[in-house]
Design a protein that fits this description.
About 5% of the residues are buried. The chain is mainly alpha-helical. It contains four helices and no strands.
Length: about 120
């Protein structure tokens, strides 16, 4: 990897890491959700600092270029993140539905209780 590209990759990885940390510190994101993005930022930084290691891993896996390895890896990681978020969304929707049903039942009980008092 040319040194200019390596410097740009390091700067982008550090900027991404700082952005992620700032979002957590400003309470714009939850640390539980941002943990995986922090890990991804760390992996990007390691890959930018040690491109020979990533090239060796690509060669071991039979991938011809470092760019292809990065593309395949990041695509896989993003697919896993998307799946995890989708599962979380489904759980949240189920909880909202259950809570709405419980609230409706409680509201009905209160209304029935008020009618019985009159």
């Amino acid at each position: 990897m040319p040194i200019q590209l390596q410097v740009i990759a390091i700067l982008l990885a550090v900027a991404y890491f700082i952005l992620t940390v700032r979002m957590v510190r400003r309470d714009q994101a939850d640390i539980r959700q941002m943990g995986k993005w922090l890990v991804l930022a760390f992996i990007l930084l390691i890959g930018a600092l040690f491109p020979a290691l990533a090239t060796r891993i690509a060669n071991i896996l039979g991938i011809t270029t470092l760019t292809s390895l990065a593309l395949y890896t990041l695509t896989g990681v993003l697919l896993v993140f998307t799946l995890m978020l989708h599962i979380s969304l489904i759980k949240s929707q189920r909880n909202i539905k259950r809570l709405t049903q419980e609230l409706s039942l409680l509201k009905k009980r209160v209304e029935d209780s008020e009618r019985n008092r009159k």
